[in-house]
Amino acid sequence: MQPGAGKRVAFYAPMKPPHHPVPSGDREIARNLIGLLTASGAEVQLASDQRIYDKHGDAALQASLRNQAEAEAERLIRGLPEADLWVSYHNYYKAPDLIGPAVARARGIPYVQIESTRAKKRLTGPWAGFAEAAHAAADAAAAIFYFTEQDHFALDRDRCGGQAVAHLPPFLPLYRLPEASPLDGPMLTAGMMRQGDKLASYQIISEMLSYLPGDWRLDIAGDGPARGDVETLMAPYGDKVRFLGQLSRAELAAAYGNAGLFLWPGVNEAFGMVYLEAQAHGLPIAAQDRPGVRDVLLPAGYPAPEQGPEALAAFTAGLLANPALRVEAGRHARNLISSRHLAPAAARRFWATVLPLMETRA
């Protein structure tokens, strides 16, 4: 019998609803979580598409969002269809869950969070009120699931009462591995093209390519408002770099399947779904040793960010020059994904923590 059979789950993602038109890792994870719960036998309803997100620390916007959330919570307390559990994904100081705790409390159902961040340093400054709200929402959760050790420390330190803090390794919405790449194609990079951390990763790639010896090739999958900047960064390398544009899921899978390794420095990535996808196809990874990123990568002595682009180039060159090493790394990477990062393992971990909460309520 499926572990979630017959359970009615209200799902909410304050930062970005799963049907938002702009692709992102957050949207992808929200969709994957809904798919995981549904495949486990649960009946999942999107409780609200109310977006609560303040990117810039705007007090007026925060006040407006609070008012909207209060009205939405009152609506849901009265009108939400029967549910056995409330699940909120990604509660943090820029996007606190201002709705879930109130509705779950009023309706008498367990409230749990997946990916929640406690950031004490944000309790002062332009997001202070939202940071307090994020902490309060975390306090209200009967269980909080964390993806990476970086989040685990603060969640465990500030654990509220008998709250469960449980590991849910990031996962792919797959029940078996895709076909492995033969590893005889170009390097592959996949990332949105926007200002900030994504562009910073592209900047590192551009610099490291200048140190990379041999007859290499690089395909880049992705698009976005900073595409012109990325093209400028890669212009010195001419036709050695090919832009694939924004790809569909099937097209991206084909790109992984044709690649020889995956290259992405991972500047400020929470963990990076692309690393899971690439390793599922057996691609060795060229990345920097960063918090979050290291949680989902096969251990391999990745260079530290402070060692700079030259060290990343040397690491990448070692992989390119040794086909047997790439094959071995890819095989171990697939084993890692199969054992820890596919849907069956994630479902077992989730329901093992949540079902006792629901039984206590019953």
UniProtKB/TrEMBL annotation:
Keywords: Transferase. InterPro entries: Glycosyltransferase_grp1. Coiled coil: none annotated. Gene3D superfamilies: Glycogen Phosphorylase B. It comes from the Bacteria. One of its GO terms (molecular function) is glycosyltransferase activity. Residues 1-22 are annotated as: Disordered. Pfam families: Glyco_trans_1_4. This is Glycosyl transferase family 1. It comes from Leisingera methylohalidivorans DSM 14336. The lineage of its organism: Bacteria, Pseudomonadati, Pseudomonadota, Alphaproteobacteria, Rhodobacterales.
